[in-house]
Amino acid sequence: QNMESTLHYIHNDSDLSTNSSFSPEEERTSKVQDVVPQALLDQYLSMTDPSRAQTVDTEIAKHCAYSLPGVALTLGRQNWHCLKDTYETLASDMQWKVRRTLAFSIHELAVILGDQLTAGDLVPIFNGFLKDLDEVRIGVLKHLHDFLKLLHLDKRREYLYQLQEFLVTDNSRNWRFRAELAEQLILLLDLYSARDIYDYLRPIAFSLCADKVSSVRWISYKLVTHEMVKKLYTASTPTFVVDLMNELVEKFCRCRKWSGRQTFVFICQ
């Protein structure tokens, strides 16, 4: 019965829609909540203590990061202030495995926290992960659409300028990174206008169509033909799809290399 009442409290719509801002007085008592025994939460928060990690378990910070979305869901977004400092500490941890764990789950945490807290507390950390090691960046890349769809349109458009950076990796042989980018672009087309697609996503898609690895190219063909052409064709401005077609002819159909002309055939197919 206690568990059912707790879950009802956590997921009650009125709780989720409450104002998420806290006064300075509330911030000073930020670790106090009444959902779970306070001693249990204090024990969890102490996992980020550096001395504890060195003497008990070097992997303890990773386990703490792995469990954090579940703890946040249990406490509810009204108690996010209890976890905020711990989350920021983990996000700047020296071990890339800890940051990687957070990168893979930041989209789940965004759903739990809602748009206001996500914009204020998660977006800066998300931006930091975008500039991190490839092992961390792949975490945000795999769920890029899931995270960006939760942001307001003006905030979402800011990331159009950064998508190009995903083409550059620490290791050029890491083709799976580019393949994942192509998969995410297919999903991202629904989040942006025809103008944004043509100006920002089209150059990336064309670059992926000419990738050295065939697996990346095949996903990119689907991106350009099934999704991008369809999206631009239904747009109110018909010039976008016409210009796209002309560029396909120029770049691939009239390419001096046979591989480029073969790409054109596959795209047409």
TrEMBL record:
Keywords noted in UniProt: Repeat
SUPFAM superfamilies the UniProt entry points to: ARM repeat
Gene3D superfamilies: Leucine-rich Repeat Variant
Entry-linked InterPro entries: ARM-like, ARM-type_fold, PP2A_Regulatory_Subunit_A
Disordered as annotated region, ranges: 1-31
KW Ribonucleoprotein (keyword) present: no
GO molecular function (one): protein phosphatase regulator activity
Residue runs in coiled coils: none
Full protein name: PP4R1 phosphatase
